[in-house]
Amino acid sequence: MLMDDLVASGDEVGLQVTAYVNGELVVDAWAGVADEATGRMVNGDTLFTSWSTTKGFVATCLHILAERGQVDYDAPVALYWPEFGVHGKDTVTVREAITHRAGVPQMPEGVTPEMMTDWAAMCAAIASHKPLWKPGTTVCYHAWTFGWIIGELVRRIDGRPIAQFAREELCEPLGIEGFYLGIPDAVEGRVAPLTEAVTATDTEDQPNELMLRVMPPQVTSAAVVNRPDFRRASIPGGGGIMNARAIARHYAMLAGDGQLDGTRLLSVKRCEEIRALQSDAPDIMFGGRTRWGIGYMLGGDPEGGGGIEIGRGESALGHGGNGGSLGYADPARKLSVGVTKNRMNWPEPSRSAAYVIAESIRAYLDTTKT
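The structure corresponding to this sequence follows.
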């Protein structure tokens, strides 16, 4: 089995994979060890901190509000969150914010893990930021700040915190049980600690000055996200704790054009809109191109900025996470895939576990078409 081989090779420690086709569960598998210190094995209920895979869920929450006519993508963020509209950010639109063009990817100066668990403090600090460049002109991945910007928009518009909104308006209607923006104490024993793979030092891979501001090393590490206080906080840019079942079921709804098991959260028209190309300009921090829909990475030709793990289908959409987790929907195949794992590693995209697994599923589906 592919997953067993990945663990046996030493490339992975523990991982889960779930996939749906036409809204039906077709893959629900796991392998390896959840906690190396105790020997606890991975099972289907194991939970993983999946970093920016969280962003896909958060984007969908905003789209639910848009579906209800409560938010306009082209309205200023400051219309809903007045305090945000200072230092020239009054022109930042919701569309720009959710496509990483707001100009405020930087974390607050001197940010600590403790500060990140304080929702009000983080939102106030980000609202007071001066843009690093004219908003709307430059793509730069808002690795952490995306979560507070979009999460606070949801709270300002709806009144409920993003964690509550995600639970009540996204997860409960779809029967998703394994997604948390802040875990309850009762599930602590199900969470797999993350570990970081040891890699050779390569000066070309060292973070640049901008990256150090966007993802400060004192808060962007496995050690930080493993902290009990961090696990219990709502950190929607990259602190979501979930299993592969939750990820795949969320994207099964998007693969089904907004519907799953008779429950419709988004219209077909909305789904077409959110997977339409918004930007494929080079990212000023990473250098490479990413094809962005409204809050999700898009598939396509990798040379043209397509997400290799998500696939070459230009209607495919999803989001990966630091160290290798992944969720995506491929509406053309009516396919959704969720991958979670506890060993954070950064191989070439074509050698990542998520890509190898997703390619094997896509290849199987393509060979079984009738």
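The chain is about 30% helix and 15% strand.
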